[in-house]
Amino acid sequence: MSLELDDLWLDKMDRLEGLTLTQKRRLYRIMIVAAAGASYLIDVLLLIAFSLAGTIDPSLPAIYFGLALGHVALFSSLHWKGLTDHLSNPHLTVWQTVYSLGVQILGILIAPQLTQLFLGLVFIIFAFATLRLSLRSTLVIWALSCIAAAVALTGTGQTSIGITDPSTWEAGLVAVAFSTILLRTIALGYYGTALRLRMYEKSRSIEAAATLDALTDCLNRRPALGVISEQIALRRRKGIRTAVLMLDLDHFKAINDRLGHLTGDEVLRQVAGRIRSTLRETDKVGRYGGEEFVVILPATDLTEGKAVAEHIRNGVASMRWPMVDQALWVTLSCGVTEIRPGDTVEDVVGRADAALYEAKHKGRNRVDSAAA
Q1: Residue with more model confidence, 164 or 86
Q2: pTM of the model
Q3: In this structure, are residues 178 and 226 in contact, taking their beta carbons and an 8 Å threshold?
Q4: pLDDT for 34-93, tens place per residue?
Q5: 291 included as an active-site residue
Q6: If DSSP codes are grouped into helix, strand and coil, which group holds residue 184?
Q7: Exposed e or buried b per residue across 241-270, where buried means at least 16 C-beta atoms within 10 angstroms of its C-beta
Q8: φ, ψ for residue 18 (rounded to 5)?
Q9: Which tens digits make up the pLDDT trace of 117-128?
Q10: Contact in structure between 56 and 113 (CB atoms under 8 Å)
Q11: Residue 369: which H helix or E strand, with range?
């Protein structure tokens, strides 16, 4: 799957600002191991209750607890040391699943009177496994676990599940019934996972449609203003300087009137692509409206912002349009400002817009700025 499941939850760790993305992923994997540990703890408490009732030997809860502790300690330490970071499945789901199933098989062998409990726990283990294992890996583990369970049940004489003096045929049917019930549980688990991923992908596509302009693939106006708001907060909290550019294509109405709106759309699309190609990955560009674009340059002061604006202006002015109109020459004007302490979004946009107006007033195809 192309989707990294861990990252769906990393936004819950936003408060841990001191951790890198890799460290957050390690911490999340350790939290998953801790969840398995909590499940083990419930089993230990149940086993203690059975030992107090005289059903099993008092040593079994201690043995089970030791194995559970070994699981948590082993896999948590591997995650903490970063030894699983670059694996295709950094959770080591196959090995955690095999370990957990081995504990249940051992439980059947030591305390056959609680066979139904340990078999029930197998379903919980596979419910976890189907969240992260491929179907092929899960089916292999399913087959091996069914064989191991059948051997353990045969060895302890627990092949009847309520049938008095079962025949070999009946014992085989019980094994088949258990195997197929488990297989159907696995199938339902995969269906649920696929359904959730499908819903997530759909929500992402809807979010992208609301975030990106369909024509230019730039941010829409509202998300772009949201980026400015975020940069204002960073300026206030950490003093990070940010330049904001307001760009407008010159005489764009004449292009639409002379060559048609389809040509105008193609001009907008290609100009937007040229603007994006000029920027860093951390920079953002949005379509503010019509032929107007807004560019946000984090960690950039006014002087640097003007230099970027000039680079964009020169790049657009040098574009040629042989597939559109040999005589077409597209230029843009630009207003530049820098976010100031205490600014609102309206303040920033207002200054950039005023600087853009000055650039238009002074002849177009130029850059003007509002003093910081």
Answers
A1: 86
A2: 0.53
A3: no
A4: 989 998 998 899 899 988 988 889 999 999 999 999 999 999 999 999 999 999 889 999
A5: yes
A6: helix
A7: bbbbbbbbbbebeebbeebeeebbebbbeb
A8: -80, -5
A9: 888 888 888 888
A10: yes
A11: strand 367-369
Distance CA 330, CA 320 (A): 8
266 Cβ contact partners less than 8 Å away, ≥ 6 residues apart? 324
Maximum CA extent, the chain: 101
Return the amino acid letter for 279. Answer: L
CA angle 8, 10, 13 (to 5 degrees): 145
Q: Which residues is 249 bridged to in the sheet?
A: 332
27 close to 13: Cβ distance less than 8 angstroms: yes
Which pLDDT score is estimated for 19? 77
Contacts of 141 (CB under 8 A, 6+ apart): 94, 97, 98, 101, 129, 133
CA–CA dist 197, 176 (Å, integer): 31
Give the C-alpha separation, 124 to 130, whole Å.
Answer: 10
Choices 3.60.110.10, 3.30.428.10, 3.30.70.270, 1.10.260.40: CATH for 221-369: 3.30.70.270
pLDDT given at position 128: 83
Give the list of residues 6+ apart from residue 105 with CB closer than 8 angstroms, or none: 118, 145, 148, 149, 152
For the chain, the domains span: 5-209, 221-369
CA distance 287 to 137: 47
Q: What is the pLDDT of residue 3?
A: 47
pLDDT of 295 over the 90 cut: yes
pLDDT band at 2 (very low <50, low <70, confident <90, very high): very low
Q: Which of 207, 281, 291, 292 is catalytic?
A: 291
